[in-house]
């Protein structure tokens, strides 16, 4: 198969979808790989390293798309890339269709095969290609939240872990999944008082067993959230419904219950966000303030730590990408139920129910298409 690796062009996105080690594996199994010039430079991988591994370097993104059967990316195509996508071309990346109608309609129009990292799902319902980035984002959420709690950054001026004789900050984590668990670990490690809320008692029991003493668990409901936000300094939203729009757990009216200078970090922004007042921001302009509450809603948080993020992602994605290259998307998805769950669109038909429901589009079951 002919595989293309374009340079990511989203704002401050420095990750790359395939490392030189990955190129070596593709070449070893008989595939041709085109890599756009300087695609890996932000993650610390030179063109020379890709060439040594067997890739051919192409000068432009247009050339990569034009010559490739499968495009492997990190983030969803942006508007300037839409016209480059060919009918029937396999695009393997994070799509997060439920957060963007424009992207959804563009991919329907292009009639590509859209296989989304975020909906590849194991039998135990875990999401192997979302987990590594959720780990990074969960840990970064605390790092960024602590920074924006500083007074010059617009926060209320509290040190996350406090000091002797002074109470630490109160951190509220919405969702006890991968993001929430990693965020709670980081915040607790810095000495904050942490509360995790989740709708699953089984998950809360598990977290109660593994978390340190400065982490509390509380069942998630509107009443409890309204009470908890009154005393919280940092609130991290990490709620996920695979492939579908995230629920809004904090409404605009609830901001009035918060302390001035409270910081909200919405890790679910890729899926539309779990705060009603969230809208996507960038690393270049990461925050905005509504009702004296700081919102941090960067849609590609792990892009700020590309070396770590690229290696974490490609460790998980390469085995799936090799299956797609070796067998073609149809056979690979027939033989691997995890990959099959990643199919979101086939030749202009929406085959993932959460995407169809998000934008009131016709849903086409996979039966007969794969």
TrEMBL record:
Catalytic activity, as annotated: L-alanine + NAD(+) + H2O = pyruvate + NH4(+) + NADH + H(+)
Ranges where the Alanine dehydrogenase/pyridine nucleotide transhydrogenase NAD(H)-binding domain occurs: 149-297
Catalytic residues of the enzyme: 96 (proton donor/acceptor), 270 (proton donor/acceptor)
CDD domains assigned to the protein according to its UniProt record, in alphabetical order: L-AlaDH (cd05305)
Sequence positions that bind NAD(+): 134, 198, 203, 220, 239-240, 267-270, 298-301
SUPFAM superfamilies, sorted: Formate/glycerate dehydrogenase catalytic domain-like, NAD(P)-binding Rossmann-fold domains
Pfam families, sorted: AlaDh_PNT_C, AlaDh_PNT_N
GO CC terms of this entry: plasma membrane
Residues at which substrate binds: 15, 75
A single BP term in Gene Ontology: L-alanine catabolic process
Single GO MF descriptor: nucleotide binding
Residues in Alanine dehydrogenase/pyridine nucleotide transhydrogenase N-terminal domain copies: 4-137
Alphabetical list of InterPro entries matching this protein: Ala_DH (IPR008141), Ala_DH/PNT_CS2 (IPR008143), AlaDH/PNT_N (IPR007886), AlaDH/PNT_NAD(H)-bd (IPR007698), NAD(P)-bd_dom_sf (IPR036291)
E.C. code: 1.4.1.1
PANTHER family: ALANINE DEHYDROGENASE
Family: Belongs to the AlaDH/PNT family.
Protein name, as recorded: Alanine dehydrogenase
């Amino acid at each position: 198969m002919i595989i293309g690796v374009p340079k990511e062009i989203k704002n401050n996105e420095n990750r790359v979808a395939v490392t030189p080690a990955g190129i070596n594996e593709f070449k070893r199994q008989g595939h041709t790989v085109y890599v756009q010039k300087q695609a890996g430079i932000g993650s610390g991988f030179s063109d020379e390293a890709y060439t040594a591994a067997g890739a051919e370097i192409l000068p432009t993104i247009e050339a990569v798309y034009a010559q490739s059967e499968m495009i492997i990316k990190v983030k969803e195509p942006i508007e300037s890339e839409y016209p480059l996508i060919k009918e029937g071309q396999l695009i393997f990346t994070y799509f997060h269709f439920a957060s963007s109608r424009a992207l959804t309609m563009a991919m329907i129009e292009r009639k590509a095969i859209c296989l989304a990292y975020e909906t590849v799902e194991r039998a135990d319902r875990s999401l192997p290609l979302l987990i590594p980035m959720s780990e990074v984002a969960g840990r970064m959420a605390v790092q960024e939240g602590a920074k924006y709690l500083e007074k010059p950054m617009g926060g209320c001026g509290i040190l996350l872990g406090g000091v002797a004789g002074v109470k630490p900050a109160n951190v509220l984590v919405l969702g006890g999944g991968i993001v929430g668990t990693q965020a709670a670990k980081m915040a607790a490690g810095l000495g904050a008082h942490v509360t995790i809320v989740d709708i699953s008692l089984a998950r809360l029991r598990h977290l109660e067993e593994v978390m340190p003493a400065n982490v509390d668990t509380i069942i998630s409901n509107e009443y409890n959230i309204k009470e908890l936000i009154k005393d919280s300094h940092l609130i991290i939203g990490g709620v996920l419904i695979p492939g579908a729009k995230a629920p809004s757990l904090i409404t605009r009216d609830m901001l009035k219950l918060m302390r001035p200078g409270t910081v909200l970090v919405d890790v679910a922004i890729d899926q539309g966000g779990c705060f009603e007042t969230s809208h996507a921001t960038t690393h270049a302009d990461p925050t905005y303030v509504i009702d004296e509450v700081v919102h941090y809603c960067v849609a590609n948080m792990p892009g700020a730590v590309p070396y770590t993020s690229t290696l974490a992602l490609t460790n998980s994605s390469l085995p799936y990408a090799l299956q797609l290259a070796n067998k073609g998307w149809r056979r690979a998805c027939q033989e691997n139920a995890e990959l099959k769950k990643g199919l979101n669109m086939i030749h202009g038909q929406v085959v993932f129910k959460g995407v169809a429901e998000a934008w009131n589009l016709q849903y086409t079951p996979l039966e007969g298409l794969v």
